[in-house]
Amino acid sequence: MTTSAAFLILTMNTGNQASKTVRSIIGSTADLIKDIRGRANGRTFTANVGIGHRVWSALTGRPEPKELTTFREIKGAKHTAVSTPGDLLYHIRAASTDLIIEFEKILLEALGDAVTAVDDVAGFRYFDGRDLLEFVDGTANPDGLALPAATLVGEEDPEYVGGSYVVVQKYLHDLAAWREQSTETQEAIIGRTKFDNVELPDAREGQKSHKTLCTITDEEGEHDILRDNMPFAVPGRQEYGTYFIGYSRHLWVIEKMLERMFIGDPPPLHDRILDFSTPVAGATFFVPPRQFLNNLAD
Ligand code: HEM
């Protein structure tokens, strides 16, 4: 996890010229990353490019990855996971913001009027990796050999081995209402202690914690995803949020987590994190392996 990140969402404009421009620019992503790294004095810089269902065929000329669809709205009794426009995602991560801004500036100048920027959210690291609800976020992420197994497509979709499904959601928090809850209530909602981040036991029945609702198990065992959520804020507008981003080998795993959060398990016992966090955007992408992107430039 880096100290800075940007989540840039673009839609592609209509016309052959637009898709030609976009194809050539996303095909040269590796060169642009190299260019920024070359000027970064060893500071971390990296970017992933996701492509959405609506433009996949026009842009790549290849069949779609097996599970790719647009983000499906999920309507619970009280809360809705909204689906919003987005054809391209740039998930940019760096040791400092100047590298991210430089990358976005060069990128958007090159893309010109072939795209429209829908949103551009700057994420920052908050103390010891906390979200703005003040809990440490990202602890249960897979690592070591479990990481590629959870996040990268395998032989189940031979053309896209090494790619990854990505879901993003932009949440705004009601911090005043959250602060009115006791620490014990907040901990029960998340499923971990606040100060030292220790896991609490799963509830056997009734209301489940966020951690428990997002644990997906079947006969194959537990299905993990990789999250790189970032807090974002504009204090002058009283805007405080969490930008959720999840990478997964199987899109259905993230969709299942969302169903359990919004509809509840059992319904209508939704994730109580949603009583203090409202999603205002949601979109799904597939991040192809770098070589696939390079080939688009040809
Ligand atoms: C766990 C925060 C949305 C999936 C956690 C934890 C926190 C957290 C603090 C516990 C520490 C950790 O393991 O990282 C948030 C916030 C969200 C949000 C503030 C937005 C307002 C989501 C969404 C998903 C998700 C939308 C999936 C669709 C998970 C998973 C875990 C987790 C898989 C780990 C569960 C386990 O222990 O195995 N989240 N989360 N989260 N969250 Fe979220």
TrEMBL record:
Q: Where's the Dyp-type peroxidase N-terminal domain?
A: 7-125
Does Iron show up as a keyword for this record?
yes
The family classification in the record reads: Belongs to the DyP-type peroxidase family.
- Superkingdom per UniProt: Bacteria
Q: What are this entry's molecular-function GO terms?
A: heme binding; metal ion binding; peroxidase activity
- Keyword Oxidoreductase appears in the UniProt entry: yes
Origin organism lineage = Bacteria, Pseudomonadati, Pseudomonadota, Alphaproteobacteria, Hyphomicrobiales
Name this polypeptide is given: Dyp-type peroxidase
Question: Which keywords appear in this protein's UniProt record, sorted alphabetically?
Answer: Iron, Metal-binding, Oxidoreductase, Peroxidase
What cellular component GO annotations does this protein have?
A: cytosol
Its required cofactor(s), as named, are: heme b
- Residues forming the Dyp-type peroxidase C-terminal domain are 129-291
